[in-house]
Amino acid sequence: MAKARVTMEVGNDSVAVITIFNPPVNALAIPILAGLKEKYDEAMRRNDVRAIVLTGEGGRFSGGFDINVFEKVHKTGDISLLPDVSVDLLVNRIEDAKKPSVAAIEGLALGGGLELALGCHARISTPKAQLGLPELTLGIIPGFGGTQRLPRLVGLKKAIEMMLLSKSMTSDEGNKLGLIDAIVCAEDLLKVSRLWALNIAERHKPWTRSLHKADKIGSPPEALEILRISRQQAKQTARNMPQHQACLDVIEAGVLNGGYHGVLKEAKVFKELVQSDTSKALVHVFFSQRITSKVPGVTDVGLKSRHVKKVAVIGGGLMGSGIATALILGNFHVILKEINAEYLLKGMKTIEGNVRGLVTRGKLAHEEAEKALSMLKGVSDYSEFKDVDMVIEAVVENVSLKQTIFRDIEEACPPHCILATNTSTINLDVIGGRTAQHRIVGAHFFSPAHVMPLLEIVRANKTSAQVILDLMTVGKAIKKVPVVVGNCTGFAVNRTFFPYTQAAHLLVNLGVDAFRIDRVISNFGLPVGPFQLQDLAGYGVAVAVKKQFADAFHDRIFLSPLVELLIKSGRNGKNNGKGYYTYEKGNKPKPDPSVLPIIEESRRLTNIMPGGKPISVSDEEILEMVLFPVVNEACRVIDDGIVVRASDLDIASILGMSFPSYRGGIVFWADNVGPSFIYRSLEKWSDLYGNFFKPSRFLEERAAKGIPLSAPSSTPSASRSRL
Ligand SMILES: C[C@H](O)CC(=O)SCCNC(=O)CCNC(=O)[C@H](O)C(C)(C)COP(=O)(O)OP(=O)(O)OC[C@H]1O[C@@H](n2cnc3c(N)ncnc32)[C@H](O)[C@@H]1OP(=O)(O)O
């Protein structure tokens, strides 16, 4: 690969074009920043340069500061690896220079990339460029002056929204708000930018130093009110994360004491946050998410994905209609099959509702919705299956029904057609039976399928690499993050998190309050606790899943009768408005005290409270007793080779189970807590409360040797891997 560099060319018009070259996103790596300083110094020195145009090679301005540097800081603890850019380059060399700069933006300008552009005296962009400051998603704040200059260009409210929600804007919107001075086609970008730069030099166009602008941030009382409201909102939406409040503090410093003061404070806070646990976790997530698309034996063997145009979805229930929605939104022709006209109509209506709901919430344009719906066709037999490229079966979790369907579709579909099942727990080898095994694959979506970002792609013994690659491509096209996993009961995510609900039930039967457990877990950062989650999923799912796991992992199951007792008493969770909580339209779910006698009945039946008395545990112990068994199962999943690498399980836990991303995922979090502590705790509880807590061999080994759970195994993976 060509070396990262910054070039400068001076034209006959006396404009120096400084270009960043660091594919694929022109990240601002240390040598790039050094190159920029050097070229700016040269441009200032040279008498034949009157103005500067700053741009990026290859259709992208810049994706921001090189995130690899943060990773290095996290690994070494050496904060001096971060260069001084904000004052040294942005303020001194660009903004306060005696020659004007114009940013010529194509494709994207994100993070430090946009901040470079903000330091310039004008910005010209191509249509549809993506402009944003997504630093908070990395646990940090903008560090090259973005917290100060963006509010001064687009207004405080908009800038706060862009930074706190990491929401980018298009050049069109930027143009309306004052971030972008002109929009031109890519062919004209440099020509117009050069002229613009010269016009600034000749004072025909304004020489704007955005750090010194004050007209868009309002009076201090107005600004402080906006900041107060934003702080309140961030308290609700960004619990347990320091960067949101820190960002608002830094903005406030600039509002009250001037932009330059704000820049200095920003630089200080930026460095502190880079060293925070949140940043370590979120940078880990950034790279781990990208590495999921590298699957040994699939993406490194020279295969090209085949073109999938038409997909059949079997089953128009909650999952099937969600999957069909995601597919039509991704521009795939979809055939939805149901067993009769009534069910079909219901499925089609759900899909329509999903799509129109996006329009109502402003997430989809009306025309896009109409186009998506035109890609959908409902059928009640297999006659239309003769030219489909992929089938995704999404019927109820019934083994014999699924086996029949797979026999039928093998006959009805063309030989190249991929045969996928959306089962969430059933072993693929059981479903497929004698079906052409190389074509069978698991396409495990998470509910609601058109919203949740994870697609677990399950590779059975004989699934071909081509089929995996094709499904990965389809997954990406419908904006999912595909994670390829091996075949076993529950696959990677549900298997890992099965002990989560089990542990919660065990604790309740030991006398701990169910609502307290839910509170502890949601304070930790999961959106809802295990009992509310059970309410949301419906108890039918809980019963079916328990059976699957009891069959597969009988050595570590806790059989609580509680869900069956709830069903017997006429409860079915959110579905019928009655679960552990009560559900009324427009109100938050409320703990239902009338569930307590049912819980008592369960305790009486299991009779596991030591001495018949509830155990006494702290909130911290509750958290550990629920999550350490999950870590324990994660260890088995890693040890069995169900995931390619431990970090895949981090991404799967975040995107499939809503494990808080700022804790880095289940394995990353466990390594932070310490395998040895987790091992000792599980061992203690297994002595007290039984086999459910028994530490796995993998955890025991790692704890004894002091090796992180995420470290690659020394055993050759080929002997163990199910992938
Ligand atoms: C001081 C400053 O305020 C601090 C900062 O600037 S922090 C950085 C802020 N910028 C960001 O957060 C943007 C991060 N990047 C992205 O969102 C996306 O990569 C993108 C929208 C730029 C491109 O997306 P897409 O085309 O799908 O490509 P994607 O697969 O994500 O990335 C391509 C490669 O570029 C790398 N990359 C992307 N942005 C990078 C960055 N800022 N630094 C280092 N590497 C980066 C990715 O790791 C990936 O590497 P790989 O091919 O080895 O896996």
Q: Treating each run of at least 4 consecutive H or I residues as one helix, how many helices?
A: 29
Q: What does the radius of gyration come to?
A: 28 Å
Low-confidence segments, given as residue ranges, are: none
Largest sheet: 8 strands, mixed
Distance between the termini: 30 Å
CATH superfamily of the largest domain: 2-enoyl-CoA Hydratase, Chain A, domain 1
Count of individual beta strands: 19
Query: Architecture of the largest domain, according to CATH?
Result: Alpha-Beta Complex
Number of domains: 3
Architecture overview:
It is a single chain. The strands form four sheets. Strands 12-11-10-13-14-15-16-17 form an eight-stranded mixed beta sheet. The mean pLDDT is 95. The radius of gyration is 28 Å and the shape is globular. 50% of the residues are buried. The chain folds into three domains: 5-275, 2-enoyl-CoA Hydratase, Chain A, domain 1 (Alpha-Beta Complex), CATH 3.90.226; 310-487, 3-Layer(aba) Sandwich (Rossmann fold), CATH 3.40.50; 494-718, N-(1-d-carboxylethyl)-l-norvaline Dehydrogenase, domain 2. The two termini are 30 Å apart. It is of the alpha/beta class. Helix 1 packs parallel to helix 3 (86-95). The structure holds 3-hydroxybutanoyl-coenzyme A.
